[in-house]
Design a protein that fits this description.
alpha+beta; 5 helices
């Protein structure tokens, strides 16, 4: 409680607990961002993968690079990762997703699509932002593969040492 008191009266009010509340957080009213077709667009990134994601109201159909989700991401864990933003926001089966993803492996691509879906959801309906933000889905995972250094076998591993 680091309030600055300017007068003796305010000091008495603060001591009694009747001082007016100091508002520190401003509530930002965000407007939905949609194109002329009623879609929201966002870019998601994870490792080396970049996903372009469009969402629109629908039946819950998800296509990635023109293929169904269970064809492109065959592992159930990757499918679960893609469905997490909808579960957290409480909008299961209400949006159709069309995504194109490039780079990285399947795990990174699934993370990139998840990031893109989360960003697109909060652009489509700003009231979903607190739930997605609390779950950490709007934050880009900045962990990437460390570059290889010269004089090293990999990023940190040295070549085998030989005494003789």
């Amino acid at each position: 409680m680091a309030e600055q008191v300017n007068s003796l009266e305010e000091l008495g009010q603060v001591a009694e607990g009747t001082a007016p509340a100091v508002e520190t957080e401003e509530v930002i009213n965000r407007d939905p961002v949609r194109d002329e077709l009623g879609r929201s667009y966002a870019t998601g990134k994870r490792k080396d993968a970049v996903a372009r994601v469009w969402i629109k109201p629908g039946s819950g159909k998800v296509t990635v690079n023109g293929k169904e989700i269970n064809v492109y991401f065959a592992r159930p864990v990757l499918q679960m990762i893609l469905k997490q933003p909808f579960t957290v926001a409480g909008v299961d089966g209400q949006f159709d997703v069309q995504a194109t993803v490039k780079g990285g492996g399947l795990s990174g691509q699934a993370g990139a699509v998840k990031h893109g879906i989360s960003k697109a959801l909060q652009l489509y309906d700003p009231t979903l932002r607190p739930a997605l933000k609390a779950a950490g889905f709007l934050t880009r995972d900045s962990r990437v593969v460390e570059r290889k250094k010269y004089g090293r076998a990999k990023a940190r591993r040295s070549f085998q040492f030989s005494k003789r």
